[in-house]
Amino acid sequence: MFLLTACGEPVARNTGAYLLLDTSGTYSQELGKAEHIINYTLTRLGPSDSFAVARIDTGSFSEKDIVAKVTFDDRPSTANRQKRRFSEQIAAFTRSVKSSPYTDITGGILQAIEYLNEKETGRKVIFIFSDMKEDLMEGYIRDIPLELDGFEVVALNVTKLRSDNVDPRQYLDRLEGWKTVVEASGGNWRVINDLDRLEKLLGR
């Protein structure tokens, strides 16, 4: 969907959303909540919008980690079939997924940036369903600049680790660290932990 500017240049008004699913350790037990969020997001997206869901695992900068992806057709009946198929793919994934030993969040964000830039949507939103504790396998390099100008990054269901209960500063520092990274890279950062208020997901 495009609008014309005063100069006659088309401006994209569609939305691209990319949701990263943490499948590491005990956090994989939270995937039922993620499925609910994904199904809600499907109801909020319309014609020409794009949506992809990918897992966060040991090495997340890979198309192979994309679980489902779609660009919705302009025809409502076709778009509804696409949404049903997408939901079925996610349900099958959450039933069969195995826990990952490592958590490459940065790699997942890099893959999300690449995907959404290729879609050239007017709005670009990266959802991260994770405790936001990055744990990289030895040898993986992720000290890489993130190009997040024009991106919204939304952390979802950021659960507290056992160590966070001992020292809450760890939890607060973890969130503040990601906020700093995202905003220094030109992005907009939000955290949504209240999953009873899902209308905030794609709210401005």
Explained architecture:
The protein has a single domain (12-200), classed as von Willebrand factor, type A domain (Rossmann fold, 3-Layer(aba) Sandwich). The protein has 204 residues and is an alpha/beta fold. The two termini are 19 Å apart. It is globular, with a radius of gyration of 17 Å. A six-stranded mixed sheet has the order 5-4-3-6-7-8, sandwiched between helices. Strands 1-2 form a two-stranded antiparallel sheet. It has helices spanning 31-44, 76-96, 105-119, 162-166, 168-184, and strands at residues 2-4, 10-12, 15-22, 50-56, 66-71, 123-129, 151-156, 188-192.
Main sheet: strands, sense, barrel: 6 strands, mixed
The radius of gyration over CA amounts to 17 Å
Proportion of strand residues:
15-25%
* Count, helices: 5
CATH topology: Rossmann fold
CATH superfamily: von Willebrand factor, type A domain
Largest sheet, spatial ordering of strands:
5-4-3-6-7-8
Topology of this protein?
Layout: E1 2-4, E2 10-12, E3 15-22, H1 31-44, E4 50-56, E5 66-71, H2 76-96, H3 105-119, E6 123-129, E7 151-156, H4 162-166, H5 168-184, E8 188-192
Parallel strand pairs: 3-4, 3-6, 6-7, 7-8
Antiparallel strand pairs: 1-2, 4-5
List keywords for this structure.
6-stranded mixed beta sheet, 204 residues, 22% strand, alpha/beta, two-stranded antiparallel sheet, globular, Rossmann fold
Structure at a glance:
The chain has 204 residues and is α/β, with parallel strands linked by helices. The chain is 35% helix and 22% strand.
